[in-house]
């Protein structure tokens, strides 16, 4: 079910990236970078990847925590913010992260918030990627 609200900056959500190649075309975690002030149906996001960038650039930030729960029996993978792939998306493309089931069998969802240091590093990475001061 899509989100009905603009999550706070630094929240991690699942995002349906519907681009056309070579744009990103998949569902993946994303960090809320900004909430649109004129349109409450839009947010700006930075995608997260569990694949290390090759080559790693100064605008790629390795997160200090993995905000996405690993699959059962799998190790917790490292995550990178792809600060050069910032995008503004509609709320209907966002959802909370699935985190197993509750004792009653209903689905459990989370919207993790990144530590302040990671949020600041992602913001700095976006500025660097876009050539902003």
Radius of gyration: 15 Å
Percent of residues in helices comes to 10-25%
Order of helices and strands: EEEEEEEEEH
Structurally, the number of domains stands at 1
Using the alpha-carbon principal axes, give the shape.
Answer: globular
Q: What is the CATH first-level class name?
A: Mainly Beta
**Oligomeric category:** single chain
Q: Sheet bearing the most strands, described?
A: 7 strands, antiparallel
Instruction: Specify the structural class.
Output: mainly beta
- The residue-averaged pLDDT reads 95
Short description:
With 133 residues, the chain is mainly beta. Helix content is 11%, strand content 35%. A hairpin with a 5-residue loop joins strand 8 and strand 9.
Tell me what the structure shows.
It is a single chain. By secondary structure, this protein is mostly beta strands. It has a single domain (12-65, 74-130), classed as SH3 type barrels, CATH 2.30.30. The protein contains 1 helix and 9 strands, in the order E-E-E-E-E-E-E-E-E-H. The protein has one helix at 116-130; strands at 12-18, 25-35, 42-49, 60-62, 80-82, 87-90, 94-95, 97-101, 107-110. Strands 1, 2, 3, 4, 5, 6 and 7 form a 7-stranded antiparallel sheet that branches. It has a two-stranded antiparallel ribbon with strand order 8-9.
């Amino acid at each position: 079910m899509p989100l009905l609200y603009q999550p706070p900056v630094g929240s991690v959500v699942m995002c349906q990236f519907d681009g056309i190649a070579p744009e990103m075309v998949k569902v993946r975690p994303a960090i809320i970078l900004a909430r649109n002030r004129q349109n409450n149906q839009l947010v700006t996001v930075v995608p997260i990847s569990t694949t290390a960038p090759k080559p790693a650039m100064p605008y790629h930030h390795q997160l200090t925590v993995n905000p996405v729960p690993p699959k059962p029996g799998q190790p917790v993978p490292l995550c990178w913010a792809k600060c050069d792939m910032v995008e503004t998306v509609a709320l209907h493309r966002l959802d909370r992260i699935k985190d197993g089931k509750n004792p009653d069998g209903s689905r459990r969802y989370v919207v993790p918030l990144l530590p302040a240091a990671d949020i600041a590093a992602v913001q700095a990475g976006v500025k660097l990627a876009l050539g902003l001061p």
